[in-house]
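DEPOSITED CHAIN:
***
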Amino acid sequence: MAEISLFEPEVLRGVVEKFTAPENLTLLSSLPTTPYPYPSAVWDVIRGGRQVAKPNVPNSEAHVVAPLGRAQQSAAFIYLREKKVFSPTTLHWVRSPGEIARANAEAAVLREVNDLNIRFDNFLEYICWRALTGTLTLDYPDVQASIDYGIANSHKPSAGTAWASATVAQIMDDIRAWKRLIARDGRVPATDAYANEKTIGRILNAFATIGSGALGPEFLSDRMKEEFYKSGTMPGFMGLNWHTVEAVYDTDNDVQTLFVPDDTIHVVNLTAGRPMEIMEGPTADDEAPQGHTGKFSKTWKEKDPSARQYLLEWNVLPVITRVEQFVYVADVSP
């Protein structure tokens, strides 16, 4: 039998830890990760004040100022635990002697390991986008739960006019109002907007529709037009970095579903004050090292029936600590 290194626990865990999220998983590849050693996640929700200081006089007691607005939220981690039985082809290479068999076995095992890892990454990307809508709802046979992240209804606006027929000026008014929500409530500038190509295309379509008082395509910079035709984005429009999110996931019925649906937009500041992060909780597997957080993997051989299996486990949860830095528009063309 080819004794491959991937069957060694330390090697296998090291391989899994070195996997990086694909670039098309926008949030997973950009959000910071925080290890958390307790079985339930607890995080602060920070809301700053806008009051101004009051003048005082010398040699008098200082005015008492209330602490920064801060609340705590808690939720159970979302527990992922899935396994695979290696295919007959994989087992053939594992059982065959020689260096060629060893190389083929390691490649076959790594494919299976990576496939489970991608499933986990896709799920985390999905729940991160759902968290940015303000509510994460899980409705599965084994788990039913809902987390309210506390994003105010004022930060879930609608378009003033459906973008399918809106003028450029109307679209610009909408974006300006959404940016103002973050600037006034979050006290930071809105920096980025996330939408799919169809939604961003509605902006360009508005420029292309010439009517009374309309702004034509010449209002856009050459860079904006070039980038839109090349990648579906319009960098710098209304002072925002526009990101096209076209990644999809497959449902259990093999239906391709966009992480960011048509006609939805997320206007955000994801950098100031670490407003959103991914918390990784402790593993529940008793074979894991003491205090281990993050993904845990292992492989073992069943004797009856004879088969080798691979398991991956993850305790994880996206959290939002500065809810006023996010605006979610559920439908710009109702």
The longest strand covers residues 306-320. The chain has one domain: 5-47+71-329. Residues 5-47+71-329 form a domain with the phage-related protein like fold fold (CATH 3.90.1690.10). DSSP finds six helices and 15 strands in the chain.
